[in-house]
Amino acid sequence: MPEKTVLITGSTSGIGLTIARAFAREGYNLIFNGLEPDGEQIAAAVARDHGIDHVFDAANMLNPQDLRTMIRRAEERFGTIDVLINNAGIQHVSPVETFPEEKWDAIIGINLTAAFHLTKAIWPAMKQQQFGRIINIASAHGLVASEYKSAYVAAKHGLIGFTKTVALEGAPHGITANAICPGYVKTPLVEKQIADQARTHQIPEQEVVEKVILTKQAIKDFIPAESIAALCLFLASDGAATLTGAALPIDGGWLAQ
Ligand code: NAD
């Protein structure tokens, strides 16, 4: 198999880390990214376990120059990047009336605008090699709303719109772009929401999971991060060459209702 390289933002925690492990198992070179203080060690451990080449870059999604530099360094190291997975994301839950303005800006910046900067920076090389796979980790909240998540819902809807546009522009150049729309996955991002809701509603965390978090999913289980990783591997494969511009739910039947 020819050597391939994947860059995954926010890959030192949660879903991104599980995706990174899945690509490492397939022998991809990896560019890890994330703000975890022990990110460098997390990345090195995955690379060691699977005998792959890797770099870790702590580029902040809110700093466009950091993002351009991360792409340039990765291209210098590996030649080209075949797969870009825009996964880094944050959440904040609050009514619109009191939604902190700095949280709005950060959510739009990290969950949406960073994907634009990275796609723009990677585009010339993908176009040059007439191959590229761009996978954006959106959310069921990219297709439907829930109250108190205005910035997140706006960012994820925007990310799906961006994905569709990039799919159209990439089509003549062998570049596909798709969005994955997960339901709830048990990661630090969701564990924080569970704890916050338990405090707000003064109910045990298990009750929050059953009555608040998973109410909209027909299947009352968290989505395994491994399922999202498997879908990413498929989207990166030759079998998915004509699958582009899609927003793919993996949501326990949330959007079927
Ligand atoms: P997580 O908190 O476990 O991981 C988020 C990652 O993003 C971390 O590595 C973090 O360091 C990184 N990150 C955050 N801000 C950053 C910044 N400014 N610069 C660089 N990196 C930054 O969360 P997760 O649940 O694994 O979420 C991953 C993605 O999946 C997000 O886009 C999230 O919106 C999406 N998602 C999650 C769920 C869920 O239920 N957990 C559901 C649907 C979609």
Structure description:
With 257 residues, this protein is α/β, with parallel strands linked by helices. It folds into two domains: 5-183 and 224-250, Rossmann fold, CATH 3.40.50.720; 184-222, no CATH class. The protein is 48% helix and 14% strand. The protein has helices at 14-25, 39-50, 64-78, 101-129, 150-170, 188-201, 205-213, 225-236; strands at residues 5-8, 29-33, 54-57, 83-86, 132-137, 175-182, 247-250. It has a seven-stranded parallel beta sheet with strand order 3-2-1-4-5-6-7, with helices on both faces. The model has no long low-confidence stretch (mean pLDDT 97). Bound molecules: nicotinamide-adenine-dinucleotide. The site of nicotinamide-adenine-dinucleotide has 28 residues, from helix 1, helix 4 and helix 6. InterPro entries: 3-OHbutyrate_DH (IPR011294), NAD(P)-bd_dom_sf (IPR036291), Sc_DH/Rdtase_CS (IPR020904), SDR (IPR050259), SDR_fam (IPR002347). This is 3-hydroxybutyrate dehydrogenase. One of its GO terms (molecular function) is 3-hydroxybutyrate dehydrogenase activity.
What descriptors fit this protein?
2 domains, 3-hydroxybutyrate dehydrogenase activity, 8 helices, alpha/beta, Rossmann fold, single chain, SDR, SDR_fam, seven-stranded parallel sheet, 257 residues, binds nicotinamide-adenine-dinucleotide, globular, 7 strands
Short description:
By secondary structure, the chain is α/β, with parallel strands linked by helices. The chain has helices spanning 14-25, 39-50, 64-78, 101-129, 150-170, 188-201, 205-213, 225-236; strands at 5-8, 29-33, 54-57, 83-86, 132-137, 175-182, 247-250. It has a seven-stranded parallel beta sheet with strand order 3-2-1-4-5-6-7, sandwiched between helices.
